[in-house]
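This section describes the prediction task in plain terms. A model, or a person checking by hand, is given the sequence of a single protein chain and must write out its three-dimensional structure as a string of tokens. No templates, partner chains or ligands are provided. The sample shown here is typical of the held-out split.
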Amino acid sequence: MSGSALEPELDIAIHTGMRRSEQFGCEWSWVDLDRRVLTVPRSKNGEKRRVYLNDVAVAAFRILWRFSEGKGKVFGHLYASNTTKGAREWFEQALVEAKISNFRWHDLRHTFASRLVMAGVGIHTVQQLLGHKTIQVTLRYAHLAPEHQLEAVQRLCDTGVAPNEPTDTRTDTKGFDSLEAGSARPN
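The expected answer:
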């Protein structure tokens, strides 16, 4: 199978973040290209989950549509033979040829998440897009956005207020003016 015939598989993996089992178990009945959403009826955590499709993913699904006319499994036409290991076979061969080690199909899901975080997408949105049940699993990607934290505090300089210009930041500070060092704070 030529590399160009396999591009839609790779594009879908990188642009949807679907788990391998979700992607290769995907049936056309799950896919709504008009609404740009794919509905996994039962995800890893046992719940229905929606996978939103960007332009690249939609284009990849449209290419695959031509082979099956929207019937059966999305990738069924590619792996109809009993002599193939499916996507694993070409993917592992491509890694060998590229001299890439210690990389798995699941790492494409990590690529999806990492790229979202580095593009400034909020961690809670990334959690939802990945279908993680808890935020703790998604937080492993938070370290990828330190420049976004710097950008956030830099916004204070970009407010249009001169750096030394006083601003109205009054709060109720009754009792604080007379505090001496080491004395208790008022209630």
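For orientation: Residues 3-101 form a domain with the hpI Integrase; Chain A fold (CATH 1.10.443.10).
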